[in-house]
Design a protein that fits this description.
Number of helices of chain A: 18
Strand content of chain A: 15-25%
Family (chains A, B): Belongs to the PheA/TfdB FAD monooxygenase family.
CATH superfamily of the largest domain in chain A: D-Amino Acid Oxidase, subunit A, domain 2
Keywords (chains A, B): FAD, Flavoprotein, Monooxygenase, Oxidoreductase
Number of domains of chain A: 2
Number of strands of chain A: 29
CATH class of the largest domain in chain A: Alpha Beta
Largest sheet of chain A: 9 strands, mixed
Distance between the termini of chain A: 29 Å
InterPro entries (chains A, B): FAD-bd (IPR002938), FAD/NAD-bd_sf (IPR036188), Phe_hydrox_C_dim_dom (IPR012941), PHOX_C_sf (IPR038220), RIFMO-like (IPR050641), Thioredoxin-like_sf (IPR036249)
Pfam families (chains A, B): FAD_binding_3, Phe_hydrox_dim
Shape of chain A: globular
Oligomer: homodimer
Radius of gyration of chain A: 26 Å
Helix content of chain A: 25-40%
GO molecular function, one term (chains A, B): FAD binding
Low-confidence stretches of chain A: none
Structural class of chain A: alpha+beta
């Protein structure tokens, strides 16, 4: 994801991986709605959507009074109406493939994942860190190139079935081993000088260790196994996402996947951590895992002929003490938060860390944005990680607990509580409830430190005096991702989800809700706003290159003309290509795809309109009026807090 | 398209092209709804849909009483509700790319377009033609391999802008030249022995000439130019499909395209054919064409900085006397029908020719289908070509004619007639009104010869005694493509357009509308039908391999169980992969994508149900009851008329 941002922003970057290949099976698989929206903004959600299994419904199976499991409930897998995507499942190898293709395309073949390469030293010039000028490289990293053999971990027991134990938290990290082995050879190192570095190097993060930062939290005694199989079974809901609580044999989760595969998460109640706190992984095999599953799912039968991958892990929740070092070295993903995989959060939240950070680094490297925006990474994402860990702590205990026999059974888990947690959890797990706190990037009232993870953002004080007018757009929430409804291109009547026009190209968007442009008062407001926009000494140089302008009006499409009814700044003219026909949209009925009713759904008045600023990651930074103090002046002040003057 | 079918059917095939490269710009661009449905069945409609410009609305511009053009009407570009696709525009080069990728994938890299190769002799062993047994190759073709230089035609005037004049009907054919040039060299030929051959070699078809078949019809005096430009204009509807009739300067059509391009079809009223009947193409340049456009579109301005491609053509309609020679050599596309390009029919109807033919050849080569089905190619497609020529004849004259000044102006074209023709023409042009006549493949009453192009299909007489019961599915029409509505997979609740399950894999579909399976009478009917299906000595060997079975039931999804409520033959068990979860669907509401209401939309009763047979190209071959004479017996008789016993 970081490399994709660098490619989309045109930044010179390198990416190294100590492993010699991409993932070919197993590992993560669930893609949440927000991740698909992000993929779409990068240009490849359609590939994932087409290949993946789509999860639609969750079935809950619990013991009846006779102790035999039965289906007790069905709920939609994700809340209805939140996004144009739903949750899908596809193995991580394909997702890596989409990223690799996307990076290649957008970097014009200049950024490649360099495999079997790992860092062995990091030096930081403390005095250079504070100076973000162009020719300043505070970081010096020594990279070591491994042979393929060195970089390929052995599989358990010499089996031909791939397993993921070498990446599991039941395994020791092999980074130091790899570095030591590599050092026995000559001439296989190089020195890289860098402005910024991001460690996306997993739970055992070498980068985190160099910085001396910690993961805080505790493991539990719960051990789970994972099997990717083509199941042969008479269990009726094997193609649904299922949560199965047996009376006394533990729990099981069914995740139906692509190509007839099903992933089973199976509680291994017979395996316990030893006195060191870690379970003996030699006792865990596909056979022990499927036998545990058979006990849970009885009286239904469950076997398989084909196993694609398997692993096991010990549940625990930990979060990093720090996500950045002096705005120069950053940590993302498992390097700063680890938890159980069952809520499908690991890959998603990790990608979203990098999605939050990439454009900020991109704009600072280009000299467009003030370096202080980099502080919002920890403030925004460490808070998300803390929320995630709290969610997973609660969720995984409900999942691993024994079902309560009745209301008096206090050590058991109430199945009503479990269902309730699932329903609430679905919104959190979708990634769409993320709400970033006040900063120079989010013109929201309140205390930035309290709304974030406690990080001091005092440098953004001047922006916080901004009066954002959220009541002008009651369904557009500052700090949350811009919701999406269908609008039509004024020039060709084609329907688009507005979000499709918020591509991840590193640009902010100034979205002008022009309202009913045939009302004289509204037209006058629009013209006055556009005159200020076109004349702005500060913002004008950033327009289009770093701030794209989108207009959504609410007059009838067929009574409206692009060239007659909208100031030029909203659809600029080019000598080579004529007028811009791709920036003005209308909230009107389509011939073939219904009516988005965007003004109603966004809560924007057609006789007032408003302006909205979205960040390059689609989160809402500012909402203002077309006129008055919170209008043009607000937009101007927002960007003065972000861009270099 | 033929090569794609061969790849999808696993047939050993070769494809040669006398040109040295694929198309990179210009040529055809419009993709009709039916073509997109076909692309989807092959697996790449999504790529075209994503890259293309979508045409949504047609604007009509006509002279007012003052003689100045103004917008007189807007109509939707395609009829609403007919298909899940609409008309899009994308240049032929991209479409060729999608085909090349698809052929490579499905042929496992064994079929490639062999470029700069052309046939120079064709020998047909007359006595072998009638014997379709496996080791019989009646055709002998000598192929000549050209150098790149030989195969690349010169561009006009040494310009760097690509033009298509060398492919236009204003140019002479160069095939004989190429063959003669190639003969001067040694060792560049090879002999191919073939069972079947299809000439998709254009209006000057070498194959057609070898067979001695003719194109019948006449050219007109109307000459049109084509420009692919990025327009610089104040014409308000430049991103709409427009038909512009000027008072006395001729007509112009606007086709907005991808990447800011617009294609303009421009009537060249000042250029006339000479006494030979052909216009002097040296007089036609991008400058003369844009100047003609400027006269038509005045008082609006129209210029360009970038021209991607241009060409010119003379309007005429011709159709081939024969489409096949002894069921061994076939002609498709421009080789058997030529007409004006403005209705966007050329590429679409030509691809649909091959789409009609490919699976038939595939099944005959495999020894699955009776060779007599090959006769339906000419019967079905020559009739379509005749209808197309009639349509184009009328449409192009309305387009090229001068607008009538008033109702008394009898030599002018009434703009009301023109709009009416456009509305009716849109259904024809969508490709969705094609209605194949009675044959062994379409169990329809009536005279096969009269419903087709006159071809004798008497070998299908035994099938014509079939009593198809169209009243059981009032919106499913014998001979037309199966309509599509959304249904849910019973096993995982995922919504699918039913058409998405009719992939082009060479298989017929037996679609069982099981109705309300909880009604005892309905369940009994279903069970009886399935028992006959499972026990059939004739059809059982073809089941699944050549006839996929899809079930759509109408009980509540959540009250229905796949393994309990449906006979095994509808979801067969495999020792390796368990039960089939991908064949039983339900007409019920979805969580996220509305309600397809398929039974209502198909006109099928929930307390009767029915069975429908679709051909491998999605056309409806048979409709019958679940019980009675037109039930199982009808299905059995249909397939006895098609498959080898």
């Amino acid at each position: 994801m970081m490399a994709a941002w660098m490619a989309h922003c045109g930044i010179n970057a390198r990416i190294v991986d100590k492993r010699s290949t991409k993932i070919f099976s197993g590992q993560a698989d669930g893609l949440q709605m927000r991740s698909l929206e992000i993929f779409d903004s990068l240009g490849f959600a359609d590939r994932a959507w087409k290949e993946a299994n789509h999860m639609i419904e969750i079935c809950m199976w619990n013991p009846g009074e006779d102790g035999v499991i039965r289906r007790s409930d069905r709920i939609p897998d994700v809340p209805v109406g939140l996004s144009r995507f739903q949750q899908i499942v596809l193995h991580q190898g394909r997702i890596e493939r989409f990223f690799l293709d996307n990076i290649k395309k957008y970097s014009k073949d200049s950024i490649h994942v360099e495999r079997a390469v790992l860092p062995e030293s990091l030096q930081i010039s403390e005095e250079l860190c504070g100076n973000h000028s162009a020719d300043n490289y505070p970081l010096t990293v020594q990279l070591r190139h491994l042979t393929d053999d060195e970089a390929t971990p052995a599989q358990s027991n010499g089996s031909t079935v791939r397993d993921g134990l070498f990446r599991s938290n039941l395994a020791e990290d092999d980074t130091d081993d790899l570095i030591a082995k590599g050092r026995e050879k000559q001439g296989s190192t190089e020195i890289v000088r860098a402005k910024y570095m991001v460690g996306c190097d997993g739970a055992h993060s070498w980068t985190r260790r160099q910085l001396g930062f910690k993961l805080e939290g505790e493991p539990t005694d719960f051990i789970w196994g994972v099997l990717d199989i083509i199941p042969i079974t008479d269990f009726p809901d094997i193609r649904m996402r299922c949560a199965v609580h047996s009376a006394s044999s533990g729990s099981l989760m069914v995740i139906p996947r692509e190509n007839k595969l099903v992933r089973l998460y199976i509680q291994l109640t017979e395996i316990k951590p030893d006195s060191s706190g870690r379970a003996d992984r030699s006792k865990i095999t596909p056979t022990t895992i499927i036998e545990a599953a058979q006990r849970i799912i009885a009286p239904y039968s469950l076997t398989y002929e084909y196993c694609d991958w398997w692993t096991a892990y010990q549940i625990g929740q930990r979060v990093g003490t720090n996500f950045d070092y002096k705005d120069r070295v950053f940590l993302a993903g498992d390097a700063v938060h680890t938890h159980s995989p069952k809520a499908g959060q690991g890959m998603n939240v990790s990608m979203q860390d990098a999605y939050n950070l990439g454009w900020k680094i991109g704009l600072v490297v280009k000299g467009v944005a003030q370096p202080s925006i980099l502080k919002t990474y920890q403030s925004e994402r460490r808070r998300v990680a803390q929320d995630l860990i709290d969610f997973d702590h609660k969720f995984s205990r409900l999942f691993s607990g024994r079902p309560a026999k009745d209301v008096l059974d206090e050590t058991g888990v109430s199945m009503a509580d479990f269902k309730d947690a699932f329903l609430k959890g679905n919104l959190f797990a979708s990634g769409l409830s993320v709400n970033y706190g006040a900063s120079m990037l989010v013109a929201k009232p309140g205390d930035p430190a309290a709304q974030g993870d406690g990080t001091d953002l005092s440098s953004s004080a001047k922006v916080l005096s901004l009066v954002a007018k959220e009541d002008l757009a009651t369904a557009i929430k500052l700090g949350m991702r811009m919701p999406s409804f269908k609008v039509l291109n004024q020039s060709d009547a084609r329907p688009w989800h507005l979000q499709e026009r918020l591509k991840s190209d590193g640009r902010f968007r100034l979205i002008v809700f022009a309202g009913n442009v045939h009302a004289p008062a509204q037209s006058a407001r629009l013209n006055a706003f556009c005159a200020q926009l076109a004349a702005s000494a500060f913002l004008r140089p950033y327009l289009y290159a770093h701030v794209a302008v989108l207009t959504v009006h609410a007059a009838k499409r067929t009574e409206t003309e692009l060239l007659r009814d909208f100031p030029d700044v909203l659809h600029p003219f080019s000598k080579e290509t004529g007028w811009d026909y791709e920036s003005v949209f209308v909230d009107d009925e389509s011939y073939h795809e219904g009516f988005g009713d965007a003004y109603t759904n966004y809560g924007v008045g057609k006789e007032t309109g408003c302006v909205v600023v979205t960040r390059p990651d689609q989160y809402v930074g500012f909402v203002g009026a077309l006129d008055g103090e919170a209008g043009w002046e607000g937009v101007d002040r927002y960007f003065r807090g972000v861009f270099v003057g």
